[in-house]
Write a structure and sequence with these properties.
The complex is a heterotrimer.
Chain A (H helix, E strand, L loop, with lengths): L1 H4 L3 H24 L4 H17 L3 H8 L1 H4 L2 H19 L1 H29 L8
Chain B lengths: L7 H11 L5 H28 L4 H21 L3 H8 L1 H4 L2 H14 L5 H8 L5 H21 L1 H5 L1
Helix pairs in contact in B: 2-3, 3-6, 6-7
Chain C lengths: L1 E3 L3 E3 L5 E9 L14 E2 L10 H20 L8 E5 L6 H6 L7 E3 L6 H14 L4 E8 L1 H8 L19 E8 L9 E3 L14 H20 L16 H13 L3
The chains are: A mainly alpha, B mainly alpha, C alpha/beta.
Chain lengths: ~130, ~150, ~250
């Protein structure tokens, strides 16, 4: 297949490693501190947004592709990127429109699929 | 007579001593492998979208949608929480964690009704992510606007 | 009845625990006490449409089992003390709707059952013939209320607690041949500053320890007076903390 021949395997490797490392940071926070997973996610999103705003995170994206965009820090970066682009286009209005516009696909999908899942499935008892 | 519960500090040290720790090396390894795997699946989808002629933004959106859909299916099949038990941060740090944190309360609160249960409580776990992410991005936008006022307004 | 020391009451005509009943969930049925349960369930729903309805059914069936085992008709039961973990104790109040017995809803979290026994025993000591107490909890309904949705992929650390799915109940009577409740010691709230939501065993151990120590000093007895001292709660590590604490504070 043409696609597989031209595929950048080194990028995939960097993606795997960087994505894994970001998850390790989350795991260490989970095990060594009293932070709950919700607070860790808030931290990651906020850090991602700030690093995106500072122009640092895009370098990581270029280096590791989805290894940087799939973790929640990448979601924060998307929010920042979207906001800045909208500010460039529409000034003050863009401050409010940009973030949600850029992340709309993810939020809409999560809400919709969540709703569908609630129609179809029932929660089951946890096994220890 | 000294006892471990003479003071709060003594007791807290005593508890830390006696409490077994999570097996951190094993957890980090699992988080690394599964987190890396999820990102790699995303990368595969992303590259395929580019190959088909889509631009970066559209490809990124499609990666999010597909990963979220897969998470919703796994959560609905009662499988995601089994993965999460092993993977820890490896499953909740990627966007799969965000999706699971919306799908699982949606399923759970169905017994409280579709409007006040599913509809209202869907965001109990993921809500803070949206609040702080969006608020931070607005602050970033305002700061950017301030620093680039001439470039933008002129 | 007389007050002993700071927190203990001694009964002059000790009430008898006439009968007990317990229904437990599938996970509890795997434990060492399974053969003592009146009924073990195959699943946590028990045919109901929600966890809360299932918990109410467990409460109702447990108390019905208790009443039929004791042979005392429910018209003769004068008071009921019941509690659970949910808001407004709905499992107990909905489950026991049809009991037609004067009802006290109580809340003591893990100490609810003993709280019920103590309150009921004070009533029986003072002239009431028959009183029942019950306490229940359900893993799924309390996860939903206090912790996380069941399908959330979160990792539980080794110290994390597991709420039991079960209901236990007891009937106390004025006349009887024991086992007797001769003394009750009511514990205080003891907060040693444990903030980890995943380690409630450690948060509760000091209170258990303090209550035991107070009991010994109020009654003048030593631990060796007793054949068995039994404590228990959500996490299997709580026992570990209290066993260590007692020898380290030799009386």
């Amino acid at each position: 297949m043409d696609f597989l021949q031209n595929f950048d395997w080194m990028l995939l490797l960097r993606c795997f490693v960087v994505g894994g490392l970001i998850c390790i940071i989350g795991q260490i926070l989970l095990d060594k501190t009293k932070l709950t997973s919700a607070r860790i996610l808030v931290l990651f999103v906020t850090v991602g947004t700030i690093l995106g705003g500072l122009g640092i995170y895009p370098y990581l994206v270029k280096f590791a592709g989805c290894g940087a965009t799939v973790p929640l820090t990448g979601f924060g970066n998307t929010l920042a990127k979207g906001t800045i682009e909208a500010v460039k286009q529409s000034g003050l209005l863009g401050v409010f429109t940009g973030g949600l516009k850029a992340s709309s696909a993810g939020i809409a999908a999560a809400v919709f699929f969540g709703y569908i899942a609630s129609l179809i499935s029932k929660p089951k008892m946890k096994k220890q | 007579m000294n006892s471990p519960i003479d003071t709060k500090k003594d007791y807290q040290e005593y508890v830390n001593q006696k409490s077994p720790n999570s097996p951190i090396w094993r957890n980090c390894l699992n988080a690394f492998l599964i987190g890396g795997l999820i990102c790699s699946i995303g990368q595969f989808i992303f590259s395929f979208c580019l190959y088909k002629g889509l631009d970066d933004t559209a490809a990124g959106a499609i990666v999010s949608i597909i990963l979220i859909a897969i998470t919703a299916i796994l959560t609905g099949l009662n499988l995601f929480n089994k993965i999460g038990k092993i993977a820890g941060a490896g499953s909740f740090v990627p966007i799969t964690g965000f999706a699971n944190s919306i799908v699982s309360p949606a399923m759970e609160y169905k017994s409280e009704g579709y409007v006040m249960g599913v509809g209202a409580k869907m965001f109990t776990v993921a809500g803070p992510v949206l609040v702080y992410g969006i608020s931070t991005s607005i602050i970033v936008g305002l700061i950017y606007l301030l620093f680039n006022a001439q470039a933008v307004l002129v | 009845m007389q007050k002993l020391g700071k927190q203990t009451i001694k009964f002059d005509t000790p009430p008898t625990i006439l009968e007990t009943a317990c229904i437990a969930g599938p996970k509890e049925a795997e434990g060492p006490l399974a053969k003592y349960f009146d009924q073990c369930l195959d699943d946590e729903m028990w045919g109901e449409k929600s966890w809360e309805k299932a918990e109410s059914k467990i409460v109702k069936e447990t108390v019905n089992t208790l009443i039929s085992k004791s042979g005392i008709p429910s018209e003769k039961i004068e008071y009921c003390f019941a509690g659970d973990l949910l808001n407004q104790c709905i499992s107990s109040s909905f489950g026991l709707r049809e009991l037609n017995v004067p009802f006290y809803g109580i809340f003591g979290a893990c100490s609810t059952f003993v709280e019920g026994l103590q309150l009921a025993s004070v009533f029986v000591e003072n002239g009431i013939n028959y009183a029942i107490c019950s306490a229940s909890s359900h893993f799924c309904s309390s996860e939903r209320q206090f912790r996380f949705p069941l399908e959330l992929g979160n990792q539980r650390p080794p110290t994390a607690q597991w709420t039991v799915t079960a209901c236990g109940s007891a009937m106390l009577s004025k006349e009887g041949n024991g086992p007797y409740i001769t003394h009750i010691t009511t514990g205080k709230i003891v907060d040693m500053g444990i903030k980890d939501a995943n380690n409630m065993g450690a948060a509760m151990a000091p209170a258990a320890f303090d209550t035991l120590m107070t009991h010994f000093s109020d009654t003048g007895r030593k631990p060796s007076y007793y054949d068995a001292i039994i404590t228990g709660d959500l996490g299997h590590l709580r026992k570990r903390y209290s066993y260590r604490l007692v020898p380290e504070c030799r009386i």
